[in-house]
Amino acid sequence: MTGVNQRLLTAAAVTAVLGSLLTAAPASAAGTVDWRPCADAPGVDCGTVTVPLDWAHPDGGTTTIALARRTATDPQARIGSILMDPGGPGGAGAGEVKGGWSLSAEITKRFDTVGFDPRGVGDSAHIACGLAELIADHPQVPRNQAEFDQLAQYNRKLGESCNRITGPLAQFAGTKSVARDMDAIRAALGEPKLTYYGVSYGTLMGQQYAELFPDKVRALVLDSNMDHSQYTAWEFLHSETQSVQAEFREFAAWCDRTPSCALHGRDVSALTRELQDKAARGELKDPHSGEAITPLDLASIIQGSFYGPGWDRLATVLESFVDGTAAAAAKLRDDIPVNTVFQSVFCDDWRLPVHSFAELETDRRAAAAFAPDVKVNSLGWRAVTGCIGWPNATSNPQHPLRVHGAPPLLMLSSRHDPATPYAWSQTAARQSGSTLLTYDGWGHGAYFKHSSCVTQATDDYLITGKLPARGTHCAAVEPGTPQARVAGPKPPSTIAF
Length: 497
Description:
Strand content: 5-15%
Strand order of the largest sheet: 1-2-3-5-4-6-7-8-9-10
Helix content: 40-55%
Radius of gyration: 22 Å
Order of helices and strands: HEEEEHHEHHHEHEHHHHHHHHEHEHE
Shape: globular
Number of helices: 17
Largest sheet: 10 strands, mixed
């Protein structure tokens, strides 16, 4: 583990400890939310709901879910509340709403915007893990069976520390429990049916809500969908890596046609492969610290720049690596999010067993063959390897999405999404019978890509229930153009899946 990663993990752990000291206003005994002004966000109300720790045994203790609300700007036009989640696993919806995350002005005019921190996250009752276990040295990309066993032992000890410090909540963090929490929030808000916007991993919450409570759905927008029907580690890793490699080709083509790109006129693919080779030999260094930048670090830097997308910044970063200055690259490394809740949630939702180094290495090499520039999807790799040796059983394993009796759902996706491949949204839409609106552009979170076509169609659905025509595509907005700089809905600050 690099020193940079250790500092990131330490900061994440300290943030978790500090967050556990913050409490929002409690829910009232009547089952409604006792809203009070947030101490740390003027103009925003805070509250909580109390839910069973284990929904299968509701008398076995409770946990609290933190909420934050911005009320509708036009009370006379108000339709109700819209619940929102920014993904993760581990994204704090209440924290994001307090920070200004919002949908369009037309939606905030008509709806109270309500973000929630899923169980274990943010200002909700915390999943806390041991700092020593969290920052313990371990191989991120095992080179042999001994290192594979070391990785499994690291994950096992980390998971055991979460169980020991947190208690039962650490084993009840999966998305099926979160979906049931969402219905408790809906009832506490006084809404007969749920209106919801979820992006990235928040789509899995919405999908499972629709499966469990189809008669309680008013309108669900699921943006950049998870596909919870992938059954093997190879299937998951391959689809992730293939998607980020396709995004790299889009980035290289943009550099080729855009004079302002720092790498314009150069062979971006060849340059990047040379950097990957240097990283593999241990020769790619951060000139500020002297620390080695591993191939997985480099893949993380590349993938992180595709979310926006931030292609101009990535080009500058890669150029600085070639020149040996790397100032921008060092800053970008600090932006890579670290979330200690990730494994508690993901490993409860996904059973993707990898039994040996040989099996993992076969998958890694096969994925790299499809992605000669980026080599691997770093988020997908960390998701798969993070569950090797995890001590808790998977209670919410994969299955095809089946929604019966709900009104039509609206799914959104970019054609070039680096985290949740377009094919995932296509599969989820096909399995559920949902309408898929395609943004023919780049990045993660289609609603926030400055496309009036996407925004208008989504807003119409949320307000009236009217879906766009099946097969609707919205034109791409070129990064760096005036349209891409027009102010629009404010995205959440960080999204993983």
